[in-house]
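Sanity check

After download, print the first record. It should look like this:
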Amino acid sequence: MNSPKQPLTEQQALNRAAALCARSEQSPGDIHDKLTKWGLTAQEAARVMAQLYSQGFINEERYARAFVRDRFAFNGWGKIKIAHQLRLKGIPAQVIDEALTAIDDTAYRSKLTQLLLAKWRTVQGREPRAAWAAMMRFAASRGFEAAIASECVKTVTRLDVEDD
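Expected C-alpha cells:
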C-alpha cells in the first residue's frame, strides 16, 4: 500500500524549486502550483516564491522570451497562440507583448509559408475554395493572424501554379 507522502518543509521545497528553475525556465504559476502540491501552505509558498524571485531563479521576462523563442522555432506557433498560452500561465500582457517583439517579421512569414507548403500537399486536389479554407483554418489553429495567413496562402498557391 502506498503511504501518504510527507509534505516538504519550506527549505526542502525551496531547494527543489531552485533546482528545477536552474535546469530550465519555469513560469511563476507553475512553480507556485508545485509548491502547493508539495504540501506548503499559502504563506510558506509565498515566502519561497519571494526567495526564488530575489535570487533570480524566477523571472517573468526571461521565461516569456524563452517560451516565445521555443514555441515559435520548435512548435511553429504564431503570435496569437503563444500569447494565449503565456496568458494562461499568468504572465502579464506587457511582458508578453515585449517578448513577442523578438520574433523577426521575415522569419515569422517564412515559418508560416514553410508550414503552409507542407499543408498544401494534403489539400491540393480539393476544390479551390475548400483548399483555401483548409489552409486558413490550419494557419489559425497554429495561432497566426488572418491577414498574414491570407498573404502566405496566396504565396503558397501561386508557387504551385508557377510549378505547373
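If your output differs, re-run the checksum step. Summary of this record's structure: Residues 10-54 form one domain.
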